[in-house]
Amino acid sequence: MTDSLMDIQVLETPLSVEKCTAFVQDPAAGGTVVFVGTVREWTKGKRVLRLEFEAYKPMAIREMTKIVETVKERWEALKICVHHRVGVLEIGEEAVIIAVATPHRKAAFEACEYVIDTLKQTVPIWKKEVFEDGEVWVAAHP
Amino acid sequence: MTDSLMDIQVLETPLSVEKCTAFVQDPAAGGTVVFVGTVREWTKGKRVLRLEFEAYKPMAIREMTKIVETVKERWEALKICVHHRVGVLEIGEEAVIIAVATPHRKAAFEACEYVIDTLKQTVPIWKKEVFEDGEVWVAAHP
Amino acid sequence: MEIKVRAFGIAKDILGFREQTLSVENGETILEFKKRLLSQYPKFEDLVSLAFAVNEEYCSEDFVLQPLDEVVIIPPVSGG
Amino acid sequence: MEIKVRAFGIAKDILGFREQTLSVENGETILEFKKRLLSQYPKFEDLVSLAFAVNEEYCSEDFVLQPLDEVVIIPPVSGG
User: Fold this and answer.
1) How do residues C18-41 score in pLDDT, each as one tens digit?
2) Is residue C80 situated within a structural domain?
3) Structural domains in chain C (count)
4) Does residue D67 form part of some domain?
5) Which 75-134 residues of chain B touch chain D by CB within 8 A?
6) B23 falls within a domain
7) Burial class for B50, CB neighbours closer than 10 Å (0-12, 13-18, 19+)
8) Tell me, what DSSP letter sits at residue A141?
9) pLDDT digits over B18-54, tens only?
10) Looking at residue C13, which CATH number applies to its domain?
11) B neighbour chains, 3+ CB pairs within 8 Å
12) Helix (H) or strand (E) holding B79
């Protein structure tokens, strides 16, 4: 889902902070907030070798678009970019980048945090942590 | 002021979101939040031609270091980068980039917002807006 | 009637398939479908949540399935 | 005694200099220095705030100036 004001993608290739930030640049923007979610090496004391993400892609794009529409209305965001990676990710690689530009900075912080919080709750994407001795679908079990 | 955990600079050259984000990457980071402050084209209905920033550089670095030390303690930030540009800036150029990496994302949002809010209050840097018909030192007068 | 079932994440591992055509009762609701799924694959009981989507939208438990609907089984999401 | 005065931003415009050596009373405080500044350059009254730094640190109004101190005049900051 991409137009001149929003760029929402699920990608199999490495993400770029530069690209996402550049997309949301706007002469009316006073603040841009970017969230970068990377693959952590340790989770609950166990070493993660790599992560595997899968997405129900068309619905993921739809759900992300809903979030972005809410943000545009509620925080008067000028431009928003959400890029989520899928496939196998190594430690330190970017899994998600969210960039939001608003006329005033407070709104950009709130809006960007809303996007990542809501994305984690509603967007059909799944993450499997691969350890030396097994693998776990994150958040599946209590 | 630069060591392996913080990178604080006042620069006369263009800033790089990529560099600031790369600096704070850490295998223990679960979330990185980046604030980018750009030069806005319009302020109170008037068109801005360009901005001029000047800094009392050694003290600016000192004050930014204090802010960063607070952030490291209060939010257990892993790595922090603050780059502030000085000199003449055109519309859309980055004036400041702040990147904060923390183990959990909520802290990164709070810490990054704290840095920009406090920087705007305490760091001796001054911004002059240049219009077609004059110029104004921002925030100088009530 | 027949419906198409797709599964992602741990749901795919529990079912042992990613995509399959299944026979269900005419006019079966999502709730009835879910109950049958849980009794046939008790491991679904252990999950934090279990949602369903039809036509790329989450659907409520009283949603009535139509022939050839594609039902997507959505275990707890964990993107980001 | 002599002190060095540096000014930035609008303070520099009001004073008409960026850096100058000035004579002040021995043992003058920042408050006394500030009062003299305000009476000599009334435009400082119009500013939202006026702070002073010595040795790269903000200093309070009861700070006692020493010979050769560098006093930096800090009008309202507007970085970011």
Assistant:
1) 999 999 999 999 999 999 999 999
2) no
3) 1
4) yes
5) 84, 95-96, 116, 119-128
6) yes
7) middle
8) -
9) 999 999 999 888 899 999 999 888 888 899 999 999 9
10) 3.10.20.30
11) A, D
12) strand B79-85
